[in-house]
Amino acid sequence: MTLSTTRRLAATLLAAAAVAGCAGVPRTSLQADWANPQLAGTKFSKIVIVTVSDFEFGQRIFQDQLAARLQAAGVNAVPSHRFFSATGQRQREELRRIIAEAGADGVIFARAASTETVRQQQADVAGGVPLATTMGLYSVWTGMGVGVAGIGVVAAPSAVVTADTTTDVYLFEVKGEKLVWSARTRTTNSDQGNLTPLVSGIVNVVVEAMKRDRVI
What we know:
40% of the residues lie in helices and 22% in strands. By secondary structure, the chain is α/β, with parallel strands linked by helices. The protein has a single domain (25-212), classed as Double Stranded RNA Binding Domain, CATH 3.30.160. A six-stranded mixed sheet has the order 1-6-5-4-2-3. Helix 2 packs across helix 6 (195-212).
């Protein structure tokens, strides 16, 4: 084997190793977003952030990071730090109380749903979350369901190599109970690495999308 051939082989192996190394890194991308044209330019004096999950630690990280990023963008956003392991009629009044106590005129809902394979993930996105839903604030909340994973938490995979997580985010106005904006993100390899930087990747994508859509 000549020296040039050896160098080419080494370069090829290094490139392959780099690709393999990146394959296991969590990466978040925007899958879909929607802004209500009838509520364009809506400004909020205070937004409260509510997450749906039974994973308290992950929710706290997500709420704190999203609140901090929104505050840095000039938005008065506060984490609710109230955790719901279920949604439904009995939780509706509790949600009303939290929003009233916060003195908020806007509310952000965030929930994560997990899948185990890329193929299942793509089918889920194709089915889609009703981004332009006509359902009101509390109706969407009631229908969110109990079977949701925590932010950055994925069910243990069975005979799969990677796991992906989709995160749905909704921004509602409280007074009219109408949807102002919504988005869905997808995080690949969400079962890899530490939770805090993984959540940071989701939050960054969400905030940048909100800026681009001019809802903040």
